Amino acid sequence: MKKRVLLSAMALTFGLALTACGNAGSDKAADSGSKAETEAAAKVDGDVFTIGTTGPLTGSAASYGNSVKNGATIAIDEINAAGGVKVGDKTYKLALNFQDDEAKEDKAVNAYNNLMDSGINVFMGAVTSGSSLALTDLTAKDNILQITPSGSAKAITENPNVFRLCFTDPLQGKMIADFVVDQGYESVAVLYNNSDEYSTGVYEAFKEELNAAGKSDLLVNEQSFTNDDVDFTTQLTQIKASGAKLIFVPGYYEAAAYIVQQAKQQGIDAAFVGSDGWDGVLSQVTDPSAVEGAVFLSPFLASDPSAADFTKAYETAYKATPDQFAADGYDTVYVIKAAMEKAGSIKSDDLIKAMTEIEVNGITGKVSFNADGEPNKEPKFVTITNGEYKLFD
Q1: Where among 298, 316, 350 does a domain terminate?
Q2: Total structural domains within the chain
């Protein structure tokens, strides 16, 4: 494939973290073989390597997209300040073109086409599973390396050009089920979003693993909800009647915040466990005691000493504590850098091949990638204690 390189970066004066352009760009799929683009690429080749990303910068999932964008920006700033990325006999500065997709599949397609029209070298995205699934076949057709920092649906990586930094939904479900069994919980209820690929995938794998472990009797109640639901009274009433000692909510922090607070209002005396979408839930609850003792899976904890430099840089730049999505964005940029260096080239075929030949010691853990596009890394469980995130012992 003849690569598109950076017309947009020139127009934006090589901005490191470009403001999201929404979906105002063209809906027309990019034609990577056009003569005009080939000539333009030749003029700027060797100067800038553009990372294109789509994710929610507005809407209900905006926290995830903004965190990824901020984390990626810090990594790009660091790399460029250190001189850029040496690839063969050329040195590239990195640039980020981040398009808002509002975590909606149709908008993600438009945003991706806009990125390809503008010229990008690699696609770091999408941020959410639904958007990533909508784009994975398009990136395969364009033969561009795709690395999602946080899209966890299993089918995202089915094409050979696609990799992910985060855990898959099935792996999360399995690890959480093993955790529940190891901790000796006597009964568990599940409340999941049946209109969301992420939540459903984690739930199904959780149930499968309990069955495989001969612990299906632990699951005493299963309830569901749909996108944009904010009233969980009916589901929680059923869960309370079941007597479950643990409530598993595989989902994102916004729904989780409503659920834990309404559970407290109903006087439900049960522990909570969540998937990695819970990261950030403390900022969503009005009463932190509602999530006291909750445990969720996460590859990152800001207070971990190994992440001290990143956390300090993030807090200085954005006046906020970084979450795992910020860490995912940061690490994914360094993975791209490692692939560029290993490949000795910025051609897509070379970058894709290099992905299975690198190992990066990131703030979300040491990571390498297998031929299926999946990461090899260790999980962490985080608990909420006295209104703070702590590593679960």
Answers
A1: 298
A2: 2
